[in-house]
Amino acid sequence: MSPVNPYDDAATARAVIDDTGVVLHWNEGASRLLGHPPEGVVGRPAADLLAGAGQDEFPKPGDARWHGVLKLRHRDGHVVSARVLAHRRWPDDGRPAGWLAVAALDSVPDPADDPLVNLALTQSPCAMLIFDEQLRLCGVNDAMARLTMVPSEHLLGLRLTDIDSHPEYAKYEENLRRVLVTGKPHEVETFQPVPGETHPQAWLARVARLTGPDGRIRGVCASVHDFTEQHRARERLQLVNEASVRIGTTLDVTSTAQELAQVCVPVLADFVSVDLLDPGEHGGEHPDRPLPPVTLRRAAHTSITPGCPEAVAEPGRLDDYPAVSPQAECLVTGRAIVTTVPSGDGEGWQNRDEVPFRGVREDGVHSMLCVPLQARGATLGVAVFARFRSPVPFTHEDVLLAEEVTARAAVCIDNARRYSRERETTLTLQRSLLPRQLPPTAAVQAASRYLPAARAGVGGDWFDVIPLSGMRVAMVVGDVVGHGIQASATMGRLRTAVRTLADIDLAPDELLTHLDDLVVRLSDESGGDGTGEVGATCLYAVYDPVSRRCTLARAGHPPPVLVPPNGRPHHVELPSGPPLGVGGLPFESAELDLSEGSVLAFYTDGLIESRERDGDTGIALLCETLAAAPPGTSSAALDETCDRVLRTLLPPGGAADDVALLLARARGLPPSRVATWDIPADPALVAPVRKQVLEQLATWSLTEASFTTELVVSELVTNAIRYGAPPIRLRLIHDATTLICEVSDTSHTAPHLRRAKTWDEGGRGLLLVAQLTQRWGSRHTAEGKTIWAEMALLDQR
Description:
Layout: E1 12-17, E2 23-26, H1 28-34, H2 38-41, E3 65-73, E4 79-88, E5 99-104, H3 115-123, E6 127-132, E7 137-140, H4 142-148, H5 152-155, H6 160-163, H7 167-182, E8 186-192, E9 201-211, E10 217-226, H8 228-246, H9 253-264, E11 271-277, E12 294-303, E13 318-321, H10 326-333, E14 337-340, H11 355-362, E15 367-375, E16 378-387, H12 396-433, E17 444-451, E18 459-467, E19 473-483, H13 485-503, H14 508-525, E20 536-544, E21 549-555, E22 561-563, E23 570-571, E24 590-593, E25 599-603, H15 605-608, H16 615-628, H17 635-649, E26 659-666, E27 674-679, H18 686-699, H19 706-723, E28 728-734, E29 738-745, H20 765-772, E30 775-780, E31 785-792
Antiparallel strand pairs: 1-2, 1-5, 3-4, 4-5, 6-7, 6-10, 8-9, 9-10, 11-12, 11-16, 12-13, 14-15, 15-16, 17-26, 18-19, 19-20, 20-21, 21-24, 22-23, 22-25, 25-26, 27-28, 28-29, 29-31, 30-31
Helix pairs in contact: 8-9, 8-12, 9-12, 12-13, 13-14, 16-17, 18-19, 19-20
């Protein structure tokens, strides 16, 4: 069968005219209208068909559509008036190719008198109402009558408020009056049940004013459309959108579960609870499918009723759910379970006596939906949706919606769970690497605080107080770039390196140089992709209580704040130095004289920097806080000052970055506790030196240490005379618990401990010193070296 040409349809007159005005096609309907056969018209100008001159040009150049009345010449000579509609014809190749002109063959009756139009208005599936100028019903079609369940003849002449006293009818009538007065069309959305139905439906009414041919206002008409499905689809889309925005705003499991419950009430359910599996019962991991009975911990719940009386468990409570429960069945099967109890049904799950069902039975829940929370192949728990106020049971569309929302929430809960687990692991590692308590020293009195970041992962901030030889003490604070286990592990390596380097008594600038080399090596070992690059800042200080001088150097770290005993707090001017890991750049030290009772505040940038303020502003605020309430003289006062600083500088919700704070009060050693002798390089003078030492010990009331001290002094001084270079100096320092013996000379050759052979006459001196003292060692100085030994004393206090 050959294809049908649409232009050959004889129901209307059709002609195709090209852009030059020549007729290309002439159908049978056109022949009936004007009497010309196709062969008499095709190929001729269309203008030859126009009757008389002066008519409007048809069509005008540039028009895409034209319509109007044309006077056309019939073949027998009389004039035919025709209503013509013409538009551009677009062929398959997409280029304009002439015009298609169409005209009706027969006259069209007036719509007001056309019975077909009247039948269409009456029998239209779209519910329609017509009101007069007094807003009385004067026309109701069959569809509207079926909705109201009242015959149309019983509605005519009534107002809407006469038909129903529902508040929506009064609101609707007010909208009709507004359209009648203003003439502006209006749309009204309502959500109410139809008479005889229990389920509410969504309705959209379009209202327009009616005017007569003379322009007089005659009334208004309204067409009512049922758009329940569109309304519910819009609500579902809105719920999914809100879920994507409102769920997962934090990395806290409980908060995320609460967000899931709040998003779904009351849009999806009247009551929502979220119960999670306890990973501790499954070896620390969530199972793919748990086995009944299932133990669940209530994480969150929300109800449309204030106070949430429908809840059967308080948040944090554990409950066992038997195999017959919807919750257990949902978790075991891994699919959503809908349980509905018809009205009047006294049997079934609603009447069970187990604790998980009591709230359901007592509060009249008629429909319950359980959806498993699953993410990354693991089952995390179950979300329970219940309806008791809404009369509609859960539908298949509700199940799909609940599954989509819970799937999003499950990923957020799993993220929060993983974050919490990693954070706890990192915190445990961090706490194991940081000092549990600061060592007591004669040089400083110290207090510290460490707070992990409230929102980001745990970082690599650390602090330390390291006792050194000669009653000196090193204080260090550092910050590794980044967060998580990697940052904590790097922090541990750097802290160990600092303690090792401090043990060989390196100057602060030299120590930072070695530490910088270590960070560069760590970055190189991590690979060249940049993902494991290590960066850190550090501040290292050494305080000598004998000279009361503090030597400091920093590597890109904020400077400390000094609180003098009788002055205003201020930050210490130090050369900044490059951050650790840059490599090849020098570090500079600075010296500071500290009076008795001065307090140095060391900290990381998490204390002073935030989104609201920069580092300089934070340092100024720290100084103001320390000035408002200077640290007291006791250890408890230092602890109180630490707490006050954190309360003042950190926001209520916690800092965005890790915070480390170390306060150290300097204590000087009185000159009376230090004795110094210049030793001539003559072995014969060792005996007089021993005698002077014994006299000094007697002055200090330390005669119980005389024997050990005499042996140590004899060995160290003899070695300095024999192997060192003059000048030689002996110094004794003591506090309540320790006596230190130091022998200095200008030789840079460090001694080492060795095991002498049986018949060797020497080589046992340092071994003897190591056996008799608590610890011993050597340190390099600008002039040479110092050999020192510490001996424990009985506490004389």
